[in-house]
Amino acid sequence: MIAIGSDHGGYKLKEEIKKYLEEKEIEYKDYGTNSEERTDYPIYAKKVAQAIQNKECDKGILICRSNFGMTVVANKFKGIRAAGISDEEAARFAKADDDINVITLGGDYITTNQAICIIRNWLGAEFKGGRYQERLDMIEEIEKENMK
């Protein structure tokens, strides 16, 4: 199950991504926003991150104009590994090397087709484990020390 959310700047792209997910019969939950009316991205990044923390969803997609703000907010949550992704290769590496569980997309910088290719590659990649898991274990220790 994928949690998806956007602010007003990412709303149109979110709606196109939802069509793709439906076409591919990939389950998702939409955490808003529901229009292009101005709103604040931390609201939706928080909802998506919490849905993953609470195990309502396995992964997340966040969309705003740049991807930067959404990435910052999502990474404030323990267990969330969010990365701004702008191309297919980065999407594969994000999953394979770092087991990124939330991708953030910048609606002002990528097309719908690019976003779909990114999502397809991210979902299709397998986490490598091994030395990469050791690094995730290190990150988990850092979270324990710094996220009370």
Explain the layout of strands and helices.
Blueprint: E1 2-6, H1 11-23, E2 28-30, H2 41-53, E3 59-64, H3 68-74, E4 82-84, H4 88-98, E5 102-106, H5 112-124, H6 131-146
Parallel strand pairs: 1-2, 1-3, 3-5, 4-5
Helix pairs in contact: 2-3, 4-5
Summarize the structure in words:
By secondary structure, this protein is α/β, with parallel strands linked by helices. The protein has one domain: Sugar-phosphate isomerase, RpiB/LacA/LacB (Ribose 5-phosphate Isomerase B, Chain: A, 3-Layer(aba) Sandwich), CATH 3.40.1400. The protein is built from six helices and five strands; from the N terminus they run E-H-E-H-E-H-E-H-E-H-H. It has a five-stranded parallel β-sheet, sandwiched between helices. Helix 2 runs parallel beside helix 3 and helix 4 packs parallel to helix 5. The relative contact order is 0.16. The mean pLDDT is about 95.
> Remind me, CATH topology?
Ribose 5-phosphate Isomerase B, Chain: A
Count up the domains.
1
Largest sheet data: 5 strands, parallel
User: So, the CATH homologous superfamily?
Assistant: Sugar-phosphate isomerase, RpiB/LacA/LacB
Give the strand order of the largest sheet, numbering strands 1, 2, ... along the chain.
2-1-3-5-4
- In the CATH scheme, the class would be Alpha Beta
Average per-residue pLDDT, rounded, comes to 97
**In total, how many beta strands?**
5
What is the radius of gyration? 14 Å
How many distinct helices? 6
Task: Flag low-confidence runs.
Answer: none
Q: Which structural class best describes the helix and strand composition?
A: alpha/beta
Q: Judging from the principal axes of the Cα atoms, what is the shape?
A: globular
Q: Estimate what percentage of residues fall within beta strands.
A: 5-15%
CATH architecture call = 3-Layer(aba) Sandwich
